[in-house]
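User: What would this chain look like folded?
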Amino acid sequence: MANLAETLVKLPLVALYLFLALGSLLNAVINPEAYLLCFKLEGLKALLYLTVNGLVASALLTMIVRYEPRRWVLPSLGYFAFNLADSIIISTEIFKAPAFSTISLIGLILALIPIIRDLARR
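Assistant: Here's the prediction, encoded as structure tokens.
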């Protein structure tokens, strides 16, 4: 049962990280322009931000595939929490209304599942 629950968390997270890594890296190549905590980044700064964001997603993808959840849960929570906060800050500053990244919220919830499962086992 534990393997099924772990697989049901891992597969969507792998898909999310793959999507985020490819999206960031392709955006860095095609049009390096991004927003970071309400600051518009262009050129080299945007290229670096998008590349690092994509590489972190790739590293976390590798961790999820290779290691047990206790090794990747906290970095995943940090990654998705940062991207979720970033999306809320950007939407509030630009559009004057808070909105959030659905992908980051789903990733945050999925990354919380192993923690909740371990707490329920105690």
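The radius of gyration is 15 Å. If you want, I can go into more detail on any region.
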